[in-house]
Amino acid sequence: MDRVISSHLHSWKKSHRSPLLIRGARQVGKSYSVEQFGKKEFENCIVLNFDFDPGYKSIFLTKDPNSIISQLELLFRQTITTDTLIFLDEIQECPDAIMSLRYFKELRPDIFVIGAGSLLEFAFTPDMRMPVGRVQFLNMFPLTFSEFMGALGEEKLIFHLNTVHISDIIPPAVHERLISLLRSYFILGGMPEVIYSYLESGSYLSASRIQDALIETYKRDFYKYGKKSEVIHLQTVFSAIPRMVSEQIKYVNIDRESKSRELKNALHLLSLARVITPVQGTDASGLPFGATLSDKQKYIFLDIGLMQHLCGLNIEIMGPTDIMQINRGSLAEQFIGQELLALGDPFISSELYFWARDKPGSSSEIDYCITRKGRIYPVEVKSGKTGTLRSLQRYMQEKNPPFAIRFWEGELSFHDKILSIPLYMTSETGRLIDEVYEMAGDNLDNT
């Protein structure tokens, strides 16, 4: 299963300025991707899994990378050279190993070291700090829709989408095929193990059972990063967020019995664990968005497949077409948020923003605000081929962006300062924005 992260790992190897630390939720494919990279790109790959074998932790009681290398050579009966990759898996289980990365950077920059973990932010005590500046971070997410199509052998469709221009017409049969694949992705999501199960069995039910097992894994993790008194609130929020993806957070809608500070803390912990991602309200008056934040907040879930599973949609009696008719708006908004996160610069922590205005009789909300080359674009997500764009028009009147973006199930087009992109072409958004400027020139910025 090819992942985009492979090209990012290759870029890191070519530059090799620092050890690499891969962040990502549990089961998104970090270990598999690094091990495959190690086999293809290096003569030797030494793998230490601190969760599987806690005995490795004693190696990192010393801060001297030369001593660490000597011990590894003895244990693995290999000579560690510049053609060796040292992979420290589940590194959150050994904070000393995380701290050792800074000394590899300072004293042994010739050695390639990658660490990966799912709960990194919980690995440190108050007197320990992440070795920022001496380690390069790489963020990893579930498979994107494009990666999903690749796993299903749809390389020709991927190439077609990579080369489609705004003026082109996507043949109806191709469009329907892509919508069908999108429906399957909405059910399966992008968790590698779920997709492997579907590829082997061809059964949505078998994949659903894997989703159920993954969800139980995430629930068991609550005891690793939450106090006993916090676990019940983590469970409450974990179950509630999939049903609230398109809604602004109101604590009373999560649980009427819990205190707001308890739910707020649970949201924070789940965000640190990368199980959910905040979508922060912004005035969107300029960049960075963080300079004009509001107190409004929404969340998306880790994965659209796990989201619909937690919502209780019964795939045994429903097909992909029926799934699209339930929670359509929420599913589409989850999909776009998930894609935007994964398609950002993986070496920078991606953040999501939305815009909302509350005025009597004229409340408006824009699903997402994105940037490209220093310009701000409002984004509306439509689950079908119809629907009003009232909020989008209000935003454009108030903020006067170059143009707006609509993701929907309809055709690709640019008309009346709205770039309409089929949901299945989300990965092409940056290229299509640039194409609009190639067509219209700088006149867009002067209207």
Tags for this model:
447 residues; alpha/beta; Rossmann fold; 17 helices; 17% strand
How is this structure best described in words?
There is one protein chain. A hairpin with a 2-residue loop joins strand 13 (413-415) and strand 14. With 447 residues, this protein is of the alpha/beta class. The mean pLDDT is 92. The strands form 3 sheets. The chain has a 5-stranded parallel sheet, with helices on both faces. The protein has helices spanning 5-15, 30-41, 65-76, 95-107, 145-151, 155-163, 172-188, 192-201, 204-225, 228-240, 251-254, 260-272, 304-310, 320-324, 328-343, 390-399, 429-440, and strands spanning 20-23, 44-49, 84-89, 112-117, 136-139, 276-282, 293-301, 352-357, 364-366, 368-372, 375-381, 404-408, 413-415, 418-422. 39% of the residues are buried. Helix 1 (5-15) crosses helix 2 (30-41), helix 8 (192-201) packs antiparallel against helix 9 and helix 10 packs across helix 12. It folds into 2 domains: 4-139, P-loop containing nucleotide triphosphate hydrolases (Rossmann fold, 3-Layer(aba) Sandwich); 145-440, no CATH class. The longest helix has 22 residues, at 204-225. Helix content is 43%, strand content 17%. The protein has 17 helices and 14 strands. It is globular.
